[in-house]
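Hi,

Apologies if this is the wrong queue. I'm a grad student, and the batch job for Putative MEMBRANE PROTEIN from Serinibacter arcticus produced an output file that my downstream script rejects. I'm not sure whether the problem is my script or the file. Here is the sequence I used:
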Amino acid sequence: MAERGDRSDRLDSPLEKTGGLFGRRRPSRNGGVDVGKNAEGIARFFGTPRFLVYMTVFCVFWLTWNTLAPENLRFDSYALGFTLLTLMLSLQASYSAPLILLAQNRQTDRDRVAAEQDRQRTERNLADTEFLAREMASLRLALQDVATRDYVRGELRDLLEDLREEIRAERTDDGGTPGAAPGDSSPDRRR
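Support response: The file is valid. Your script probably expects a header line. Output copied below for reference.
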């Protein structure tokens, strides 16, 4: 009884059912997967040319046997419209329809799971794409603030000119020759 209590708390396992035609029923170990796989295999076989050939051969044999065989070996009467054959084909059709429906339900479930996985994958791809777009935009903004080589060279030239002007101004204030370094009176070292 404790096992039943444990199972009722779990949502991923079916409850055991009581009563019914055969008494107490227990959930299958595979969750009905075997029945579904078998039904799907049979339904797939029903849709093959091999099945059509087998059914055609079977019906032709049945009709030929019950028409041309000696009267005492016939088991389905032509006079009654091959009643037994009609019943067998009806029985086969009555079993094949639910098997085909079960196979379609399983395929629908697989399609639903695949569609959900595709939707999740698409959402992840969209999120990744949006993230990459934001990163690229931030890199573009950051690159606008980065100094280019030409900008740095221009700034260095301006600073160099400013320094040269300051040096010239200091020399003229000291009374030396313009363009000569302080303490350097030789004309060869000018610049």
